[in-house]
Specification:
By secondary structure, the protein is an alpha+beta fold. Among the domains are: about 80 residues; about 60 residues, Arc Repressor Mutant, subunit A (Orthogonal Bundle), CATH 1.10.10; about 120 residues, no CATH class; about 140 residues, no CATH class; about 110 residues, OB fold (Dihydrolipoamide Acetyltransferase, E2P) (Beta Barrel), CATH 2.40.50.140. Helix content is about 35%, strand content about 20%. The chain is built from 24 helices and 35 strands. A 5-stranded antiparallel β-sheet has the order 4-3-2-1-5. Helix 18 runs antiparallel to helix 22 and helix 19 crosses helix 22. The two termini are about 60 Å apart.
């Protein structure tokens, strides 16, 4: 190898990824006993070990006498040529075989797949030596990946040369692709901040290119290949040029070409390949924003254990065997006999407007003395999903439905979740119902579950019920008044946070317009858009995100569901039958101290002083009155799913670290559940003492006038509370102030609810003297593993939901109003930088290296970034008009005075510098003004 030879080095070395891992060989050096190879790379002169240089050599050479700048320019030009396939690799020397040379000689001599020895024999024209066979085997191994090289690997170690037509077709396709790329990407001259001109690549709107039919077909092949890469996060071997079985020959690669095209067209050189391809798909107008987010969602689901993008056909077919209850009853008069006939009750479901799985309904009977009878009806899923059946194994593995912005991944097949188990109006449905007797003060004084058959009068939406409540329409006004009365008797915490809702609103006209390079305002409005939450987006990013706040109707249903969950939990527990409790443990002192420190830094008069733990009572004093009462944490519930602890992980950790921490926490909670004390182990006086400081803190938070600071304070309080989880041991639910709580109301979408239904049915039938098994369906020992699995699956589902929501927020941030300076509020501080919440609830990160004045340290509670005590002189600050004046503040952990640069709650002007659409990450940089 002589100076000036173009070589390839190890992918990723010096942070240089393929296809930029080409270099010019300069010389060999010996240092002590080791040899090194000196190369000129795109990052300048580098020394590498000989084994880090691949065996590939190319026919072109570079004058080794060029200066550094000229050599870099020549190298970059050669990289473009390599991607376009305009130069070839060298033929092998005596010691090595070149695959093309071998292919040219043997392609007409071999009839079908051949062994290594047969290929070597055809190459030599005579009986090969062992060395010949060894070298041939080494050469063929370079073609072992499907679609790579001049030979295809077949079964049992046999090889077959690709047809001549495939070789010609590949080169013709690459030439056509490069011709099209030249039309899709143009070079423009721009000026940098200093006024110096420089060239950059930018994409040409697709319509402006005036494509021929063959070019459109080729463009669709580009798009299909990019979609396949985004979906799998790697190249499938069958992603090849149209009609060609090969994707890589002699350094020319279809995959590399698509990567370069995506980056050059979008200008996204610093993000991942997947993100650049996603941006190409959307910005080119070849795919809608919704289609692309659905593609990202599929990718993340494929990588998630125990979740599937679609329900297996076998499971769907299995569910089709069940018939409508009315049809069953007509052929079997005894079908309803074990059930209470509640079809005459006036019954309603109340759900979001787009709901399909109506799993709960309510009925109300008012009494003259002010008391009431409330019926809560829950779909009887356990009638269809029998223990240990195929449906049961499927449901148990998933353990939960996943509600993504792109759609629902149901725990049960659609025949059950959207049909037979969905409490649709005007048809008979099987239910597990619970009658709640409520006295005039709002206390639930008695309860009685039963198996039932019901008939819903109407399926209503929250919005419809809110309007009827406002107009005083019965029974809805009475139901809402009852819920408010019951709320005054609850003993938990009162937290209200919003829920982000996604609306995809991209019409075909919008997508075509973007492909043609039109401005959003020139696009005609679609005749019929996706049902809106409030208003359509003002410009074309294909979606809008809004915060959905709780309403009288949502609070009412949540209040009733919690009451039903508590009643059934107590009923089954009272029968001495195992229950998969939904527990929320007592807060940890370390987390309370962290909250106190962060609140002090933020200037909030919030302090959590937890009581000293005592022995408490072995059994919960369920009849005792607490010293204080107040509304519950219902506004933090979504269909009974308490969302505690998730924000703290995402605000201070990266995605991988947050995932690892959540998995660790889930395992620890499952393992330590028997050792954890909860509300159920405390007396009424002790329960009140534990809840009191959190109520006081929430009152302070509620009084914060600034909405964004109030939301931040709410999340900090939530992060100080533990995560709810499932366990067969009754620990109580701290957030709800409940001493016995289990999930009963959503068996369509949560497996623990289904288990509780089976346990309840066994108790009910045993009490009636009906024929039941000697043991209940699920014993406590079985519930240990089931609860751990369900807890872990619930957290994985939340993580998926959160990840896709982050992707949606990243797309949302492309609106015009996000293009300038934005006001971010510091929501997390780490040694690596700061996390900020931007308008619209987008989370972003500014790296510590981009904060002038470092090096820095962080306090024990991660609440402030202050000047490092050691580490040399501080870096010269940039001349920016930043609201980052040094402040002397007390370290909340040590009491020392620190020179603080930024802290929780600070507002900083930033601009978005980088978006990763697949990971849903946004990087920002500090800017002047704002």
């Amino acid at each position: 190898m002589r100076p000036g030879t173009l070589v390839e080095f190890k992918d990723g070395l010096f942070g240089i990824k393929a296809p930029q891992n080409l270099a010019v060989f300069l010389e060999r050096k010996k240092r002590k006993k080791d040899f090194f190879v000196v190369l000129h790379t795109v990052k300048g002169r580098r020394e590498v070990k000989p084994q880090q240089v691949s065996g590939r050599r190319f026919t072109v050479e570079v004058d080794p006498g060029l200066d550094e700048e000229e050599m870099t320019a020549r190298l970059k030009a050669l990289m473009q040529e390599a991607t376009g396939g305009t130069f070839e690799e060298k033929r092998g020397s005596e010691g090595e075989l070149d695959e093309r040379t071998v292919w040219e000689r043997v392609v007409g001599k071999l009839d079908g797949p051949a062994s290594v020895e047969d290929v070597a024999r055809a190459w030599q024209g005579e009986e090969p030596t062992k060395g010949d066979v060894r070298r041939m085997g080494e050469m063929l191994e370079r073609c072992k990946r499907t679609g790579v090289g001049f030979f295809e690997r077949r079964e049992r170690g046999r090889w077959e040369p690709i047809p001549v037509a495939a070789m010609k077709g590949f080169h013709a396709a690459m030439e056509a692709a490069n011709r099209l790329r030249k039309r899709l990407v143009r070079t423009v001259v721009v000026e940098d901040d200093s006024g110096e001109p420089w060239e950059r690549l930018e994409g040409v709107p697709i319509a402006a290119v005036e494509l021929e039919d063959e070019e459109r077909t080729l463009l669709e092949a580009f798009v299909d290949g990019m979609e396949r890469f985004v979906l799998h996060d790697q190249w499938p071997d069958d992603v090849t040029p149209p009609g060609v079985p090969v994707h890589t020959l002699l350094g020319q690669g279809w995959h590399r070409f698509l990567e370069w095209l995506a980056r050059d067209w979008t200008g996204a050189q610093q993000v991942t390949v997947s993100s650049a391809m996603v941006q190409f798909l959307v910005d080119s107008g070849m795919r809608t924003t919704q289609d692309t987010i659905r593609l990202i969602a599929r990718r993340k689901v494929l990588a998630a254990p125990d979740f599937d993008w679609e329900t297996p056909e076998e499971i769907e077919r299995w569910a089709e065997r069940y018939r409508e209850p009315a049809v069953e009853a007509s052929s079997d008069p005894s079908f309803y006999t074990v059930r209470s006939d509640l079809r005459e009750l006036e019954t309603y479901t109340i759900d979001p407007p787009d709901a399909k799985d109506f799993d709960d309904a309510v009925s109300l009977i008012r009494h003259d003395d002010g008391a009431a009878t409330l019926w809560v009806h829950i779909a009887d899923v356990s009638h269809y999903v029998e223990k240990d059946s195929r449906l049961d194994h499927h449901a148990r593995r998933r353990a939960t439905s996943v509600y993504l912005p792109t759609g629902v991944l149901p725990m049960l097949p659609h025949r059950l979740s959207d049909d037979l188990c969905s409490l649709r109006e005007k048809v008979d449905r099987l239910a597990m119902s619970v009658r709640l007797e409520i006295d005039p003060a709002g206390d639930v004084v008695a309860w009685e579950p039963c198996e039932a058959v019901i008939r819903v009068d109407r399926n209503l939406s929250y919005g419809e019920v809110d309007r009827m409540v406002a107009d005083g329409v019965e029974p809805f006004a009475g139901l809402e008044a009852l819920a408010r009365l019951m709320g005054t008797r609850r003993k938990g915490l009162d937290i209200e946070t919003g829920e982000l809702r996604i609306r995809f609103a991209e019409s075909e006209a919008m997508r075509v317009a973007r492909r043609e390079g039109l401005e959003p305002e020139s696009v005609p409005e679609p005749a019929e858009a996706t049902p809106a939450l409030e208003e359509p987006p003002e410009d074309d990013v294909g979606l809008s995100i809004q915060i959905k706040r709780s309403s009288p109707a949502t609070r009412m249903i949540e209040q009733f569901m919690v009451a039903a969950n508590e009643a059934v939990s107590r009923f089954v527990h009272g029968a001495d039958v195992a229950v998969p409790y939904r527990c929320h443990p007592l807060p940890e002192r370390a987390k309370a101290e962290r909250l106190n420190g962060q609140a002090k830094t933020m200037g909030l008069e919030v302090r959590i002083d937890l009581p000293e733990e005592s022995g408490g009572s072995d059994e919960a004093d369920e009849d005792a009155e607490e010293e204080e009462s107040g509304p519950s944490i219902l506004d933090q519930l979504k269909g009974g799913k308490l969302q505690l602890g998730g924000f703290a992980a995402t605000e201070t950790l990266g995605k991988k670290e947050a995932k690892d921490a959540e998995d660790e926490e889930a395992e620890e909670e499952a393992d330590l559940a028997p050792a954890i004390r909860g509300l159920a182990q405390l007396s009424a006086e002790e329960r009140a003492a534990w809840l009191r400081p959190f109520r006081a803190a929430l009152e302070v938070v509620e009084g914060i006038k600034d909405e964004r600071m109030r939301d931040l304070a709410y999340f900090k309080v939530l992060s100080s509370l533990g995560r709810a989880f499932y366990t067969p041991r009754n620990l109580g639910h701290f957030g709800l102030g409940s001493t016995s709580y289990a999930h009963f109301t959503s068996p369509i979408r949560r497996y623990p609810d289904l288990v509780l239904h089976r346990q309840l049915r066994w108790v009910l039938r045993k009490d009636k003297g009906l024929d039941v098994s000697q043991e209940p369906p699920h014993m406590a020992a079985y519930l240990e593993d089931l609860c751990a699995h369900s807890s872990a699956q619930g957290e994985r589902a939340e993580r998926l939901e959160r990840d896709i929501l982050s992707c949606c927020l990243t797309f949302e941030s492309r609106r015009q109003e996000w293009s300038g300076a934005l006001g971010g509020i510091v929501s997390g501080v780490t040694a690596g930088g700061a996390f900020l919440t931007l308008p619209g609830n987008l989370e972003a990160r500014v790296a510590v290296r981009d904060i002038p004045g470092g090096p820095y340290e962080v306090d024990e509670y991660d609440s402030m970034l202050f000047k490092a005590r050691f580490g040399g002189d501080n870096v010269e600050e940039e001349e920016l008009d930043l609201p980052l004046d040094w402040r002397e503040m007390e370290d909340p952990a040590t009491g020392e005075i620190r020179e603080v640069r930024l802290k929780l709650g600070d507002r900083l002007p930033v601009t978005i510098s980088e978006r990763d659409f697949v990971d849903g990450k946004v990087r920002v940089r500090l800017t002047s003004g704002g």
